[in-house]
Structures are given as structure tokens and as C-alpha cells.
């Protein structure tokens, strides 16, 4: 019973983690394509690849900055209402 | 969950577990949405090796101001509704 429960919980956890990662990846693709590939040519240029790589790093960084500020704000609102 | 044949205490536990995961998931999609919105607002140039000081503080402020704006507008609507109710008490 315990192991079936664990398996069930792990399935749920994995599915949620996968869907979060996919959502972030889709967003990153969309934002970085818009920013780095302004005029699509016959192949990706070196500078476009450099831009994409940096953009991905920055998007992940932006995600963590936003997450941190949101957490700080939520904690402040909780303190204020407590 | 019904066809998995868990006993009652386990069901309760799983229910709590799922509610927690759902809350976590809602938090995650709020952060996703705000990241997308704040990225468009704050990151205007070609991405560099790090954020400029202005971009980083814009991203952090963006979250707080978005929430302030949303609280402000909710309050404005509530005030308008309250004023309307005060002026036309018989219709409510």
C-alpha cells in the first residue's frame, strides 16, 4: 500500500515538474526567437546562436528574479495580515 | 483515484497532497506569466552576459508594481460599487 501510494505521488510530482519545465521552455523559445532571430535566413548564424544562448540564460535568470520578488511579497502580505 | 483502491486515510492524505501540488502549480504559472510580462517590459535590448542594474531592478519592481496595480484596481471597483449602492439603496 505504502509503495503504491509513493508511486502515485511520484507520478503526480513528475508530471507537474515536466509540465512546468515544458512551459518554461516554450516561453523561452518564443521570447528568444523574437529577440534574436529578427530576419530568418537560410540557417542560424553564429551571432544568432550566441544571442539565443545568452537569451536563454537571461530568461531563466528573469524567472528566478520574478519568483524571488513574488515570494518576498507574499511573505510580506502574510505578515501584514497576521 | 477511485479505481486505485486506496483505503480511506490514504485517500485523505493523497487529497491533501494533491491540493498542495495544485497550489504549487498555480504559484508556478503565476511566476511564468509575470516573467513573460516583465521580460517584455524590462528587457528591451539584445541579451548580454548578465542583466544591467536597471534591467534587474526593473524585473524586481515589475512584480511588486503589478500586484500593487491589481490591488489598486480591485479597490477602485469596490469603492465604485459601494458608492453606487449608497446612492441607490432600493435597487440592492
UniProtKB/TrEMBL annotation, chain A:
Q: Which domain of life is it from?
A: Eukaryota
Picking any one GO biological process from the record gives:
protein transport
> What keywords does the record list, in alphabetical order?
Chaperone, Disulfide bond, Membrane, Metal-binding, Mitochondrion, Mitochondrion inner membrane, Protein transport, Translocation, Transport, Zinc
Listed under GO cellular component are:
mitochondrial inner membrane; mitochondrial intermembrane space chaperone complex
Give the SUPFAM superfamilies listed for this entry.
Tim10-like
Q: How does it sit in the membrane?
A: Peripheral membrane protein
| Predominant location | mitochondrion
Single annotated GO MF: metal ion binding
Q: Where is the Tim10-like domain?
A: 11-71
What the entry lists under InterPro entries is as follows: Tim10-like, Tim10-like_dom_sf
Intracellular or extracellular location(s): Mitochondrion inner membrane
The entry assigns this protein to a family as follows: Belongs to the small Tim family.
Q: What is recorded about the protein's domains? A: The twin CX3C motif contains 4 conserved Cys residues that form 2 disulfide bonds in the mitochondrial intermembrane space.
What the protein does comes down to: Mitochondrial intermembrane chaperone that participates in the import and insertion of some multi-pass transmembrane proteins into the mitochondrial inner membrane. Also required for the transfer of beta-barrel precursors from the TOM complex to the sorting and assembly machinery (SAM complex) of the outer membrane. Acts as a chaperone-like protein that protects the hydrophobic precursors from aggregation and guide them through the mitochondrial intermembrane space.
Subunit info?
A: Heterohexamer.
Can you name this protein?
Mitochondrial import inner membrane translocase subunit
Q: Which organism is it from?
A: Coniophora puteana (strain RWD-64-598)
Q: What is the lineage of its organism?
A: Eukaryota, Fungi, Dikarya, Basidiomycota, Agaricomycotina
TrEMBL record, chain B:
**Transmembrane portions of the chain:** none
Q: InterPro entries of this UniProt entry?
A: Tim10-like (IPR004217), Tim10-like_dom_sf (IPR035427)
Q: Which UniProt keywords apply?
A: Chaperone, Disulfide bond, Membrane, Mitochondrion, Mitochondrion inner membrane, Protein transport, Translocation, Transport
Tell me which Gene Ontology terms the entry assigns under biological process: protein transport
Subcellular location per the Swiss-Prot or TrEMBL entry: Mitochondrion inner membrane
- The residue ranges of the Tim10-like domain are 17-78
Q: How does it sit in the membrane?
A: Peripheral membrane protein
Any single GO CC term annotated in Swiss-Prot or TrEMBL for this entry: mitochondrial inner membrane
Q: What is its main location?
A: mitochondrion
Q: What is known of its domains?
A: The twin CX3C motif contains 4 conserved Cys residues that form 2 disulfide bonds in the mitochondrial intermembrane space.
What does the similarity note say? Belongs to the small Tim family.
Q: How does it assemble?
A: Heterohexamer.
Please explain the role this protein plays, according to its UniProt record. Answer: Mitochondrial intermembrane chaperone that participates in the import and insertion of some multi-pass transmembrane proteins into the mitochondrial inner membrane. Also required for the transfer of beta-barrel precursors from the TOM complex to the sorting and assembly machinery (SAM complex) of the outer membrane. Acts as a chaperone-like protein that protects the hydrophobic precursors from aggregation and guide them through the mitochondrial intermembrane space.
- Know the name of this protein? Mitochondrial import inner membrane translocase subunit
Q: Which organism is it from?
A: Coniophora puteana (strain RWD-64-598) (Brown rot fungus)
Amino acid at each position: 500500500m505504502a509503495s503504491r501510494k509513493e508511486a502515485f505521488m511520484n507520478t503526480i510530482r513528475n508530471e507537474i515538474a515536466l509540465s512546468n519545465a515544458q512551459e518554461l521552455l516554450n516561453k523561452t523559445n518564443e521570447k528568444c526567437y523574437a529577440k534574436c532571430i529578427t530576419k530568418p535566413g537560410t540557417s542560424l548564424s553564429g551571432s544568432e546562436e550566441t544571442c539565443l544562448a545568452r537569451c536563454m540564460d537571461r530568461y531563466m535568470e528573469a524567472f528566478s528574479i520574478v519568483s524571488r520578488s513574488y515570494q518576498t511579497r507574499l511573505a510580506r502580505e502574510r505578515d501584514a495580515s497576521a | 483515484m477511485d479505481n486505485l483502491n486506496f483505503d480511506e486515510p490514504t485517500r485523505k492524505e493523497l487529497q491533501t497532497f494533491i491540493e498542495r501540488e495544485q497550489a504549487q502549480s498555480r504559484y508556478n504559472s503565476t511566476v511564468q506569466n509575470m516573467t513573460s510580462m516583465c521580460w517584455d517590459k524590462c528587457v528591451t535590448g539584445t541579451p548580454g552576459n548578465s542583466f544591467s542594474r536597471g534591467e534587474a531592478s526593473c524585473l524586481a519592481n515589475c512584480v511588486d508594481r503589478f500586484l500593487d496595480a491589481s490591488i489598486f484596481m480591485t479597490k477602485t471597483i469596490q469603492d465604485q460599487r459601494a458608492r453606487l449602492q449608497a446612492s441607490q439603496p432600493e435597487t440592492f
